[in-house]
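Worked Example 4.2. Consider the chain below.
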Amino acid sequence: MSYCTSNENSSLHFRIILLMYYKNRIYSDKSGGSALFFDLDFWRGDGIVFDMQFTKPTLSIQQMIDLLKQRDLIFDDEEKAKHYLLHIWYFRLSGYCKYYQDTTTDKFYSWVTFDQVISLYKFDRKLRLLMLSTIEKLEISIKSIINTVMCKNHNPFRYIQENVFKEKLDKDWNNIAIKTLDIIKWKKSKSASMFVKAYNEKYVQEEHLPGWMLVEELTLWEISTIYSILQDTDAKEIAMYYQTYVLDLERRLQVLVNIRNISAHHSRLRNRKYTAKPRVNDVIFKHRYIIEKNENGWKEVVPNFYNVCLILHYLLDTIAPNHHFIDQLQELFDEFPWVPLASMGFIIDWKEKIV
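Applying the procedure from the previous section yields the following structure tokens:
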């Protein structure tokens, strides 16, 4: 089975498969489940296969300027623009350029300047910083609540064990419990944290970290994963602290992980669809989320920034009732008044809707 090829000169090739029609070939795997295999040789007869060599050259900073000029972008200060391109790079900025370009020609609208592109980039950067600051509070809270509940209900030195996980996991999560336990063992033996090293040196015979140490070593994604496979009794008790239901808290944590990772890795946050989505039947928000129908006609929550803010505001209300998230968001919007909020899902009375 192959997905891409490379020639003898190690040139980068892309293998693009256009399936003219969809055929299913299901093969049983060893675990009794099923897997859909796309064998390139098999599909060669059913679709069109292109073998394309990547030929775009690396551009110098001046060539980047020239290319943007060819696309009608206006430069008020080329030296300043060169400085930005040197330290940000054209590829990173290209996602912000798209908002100002004709999708068919790549030409910029006649009024667009390089400074406007940079300003949009700065807005997105500040938005990411606000998300990191906000999600930090929620991450610390969920770690603390999970630790509180699990240490109370189980041995605080051994509460992340197989017997606290659901007995029957969804087929897509067949190995998640084993993988989670492996991660926990790795944290104990390989962590570079000072408190873990001190613990290992003092308690040589102990195989496990106490819960309050362990949660400090886990990432938000790992915490989210652990919560998703906890037995219902523990999961429900944790969800009660946030005045919500297990399925809804599970999906909201996935949204937080998605937003946190985008922000932490400096990716574009504004005006994009996120991979994690809340439940359309979320008990708290089912009448407040912006909803759309997918290609199959099923309703689903639009993965936009407005819906994310609904989640953030609600969770913050439960842990810090006097928070200023909405005020901070409004201050950012006021600083960049020309940024269109509608494309992010915000409407005129968005503050009243969120609160």
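The first helix runs from residue 40 to 44. The chain is about 50% helix and 5% strand. Compare this with Example 4.1 before moving on.
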